[in-house]
């Protein structure tokens, strides 16, 4: 089974692209969805113990947590030390299920693939990209997003140009859905030939 790491900076269309792989019948592990589930379940007690006051109603309040970790890398590392091992366990279980089902290809949708060294754990990388103006317009439509917050997020991410240079495949979502879907199909076909 080929393991494809799918990544891209904020606002590049990675979630939409992951859905295109899913629509094509490829199993997809969504790291963000795994984190969201952990914030409502297995990670709540440990996160609340490390960051008192961020859990409400039995779940982690993402905004309260964001306020605690956004500007302090050492605090963010403490959070990652709690969450990353749990996500890795979820990912391993997903891959085991996909392999047992005979899937020739599985996608790991990981926003910070390069930043966390996750590219060493996959067979091949595809980066989702879009022109900077498109990216900015998409992100600024998100509730509570500001240019300053976007700049802070981008400062912690590997630059788009470097991600594109390090990936085997580049999927440009700036040219529309049909073009992106065609590129996803081409990636699947190329990996099928490899297998």
UniProtKB/TrEMBL annotation:
Pathway: Cofactor biosynthesis; coenzyme A biosynthesis; CoA from (R)-pantothenate: step 5/5. GO terms for cellular component: cytoplasm. GO terms for molecular function: ATP binding; dephospho-CoA kinase activity. It is found in: Cytoplasm. CDD domains: DPCK. GO terms for biological process: coenzyme A biosynthetic process. Keywords: ATP-binding, Coenzyme A biosynthesis, Cytoplasm, Kinase, Nucleotide-binding, Transferase. Pfam families: CoaE. ATP binds at residues 11-16. Its main location: cytoplasm. Its EC number is 2.7.1.24. Belongs to the CoaE family. This is Dephospho-CoA kinase. It comes from Lichenibacterium minor.
């Amino acid at each position: 089974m080929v393991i494809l790491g799918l990544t891209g900076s904020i606002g590049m269309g990675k979630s939409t692209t992951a859905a295109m792989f899913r629509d094509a019948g490829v199993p997809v592990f969504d790291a963000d969805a795994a984190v969201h589930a952990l914030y409502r379940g297995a990670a709540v007690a440990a996160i609340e113990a490390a960051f008192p006051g961020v859990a409400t109603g039995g779940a982690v309040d993402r905004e309260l947590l964001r306020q605690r970790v956004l500007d302090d890398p050492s605090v963010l590392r403490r959070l990652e030390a709690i969450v990353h091992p749990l996500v890795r366990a979820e990912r391993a279980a997903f891959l085991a299920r996909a392999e047992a089902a005979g899937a020739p290809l599985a996608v790991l949708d990981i926003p910070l693939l390069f930043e966390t060294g996750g590219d060493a754990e996959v067979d091949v990388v595809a980066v989702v990209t879009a022109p900077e103006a498109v990216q900015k317009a998409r992100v600024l439509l998100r509730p509570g997003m500001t240019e300053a917050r976007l700049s802070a997020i981008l400062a912690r991410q590997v630059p788009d140009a470097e991600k594109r240079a390090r990936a085997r495949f580049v999927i440009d979502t700036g040219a529309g859905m049909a073009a992106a879907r065609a590129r996803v199909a081409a990636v699947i076909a190329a990996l099928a030939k490899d297998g």
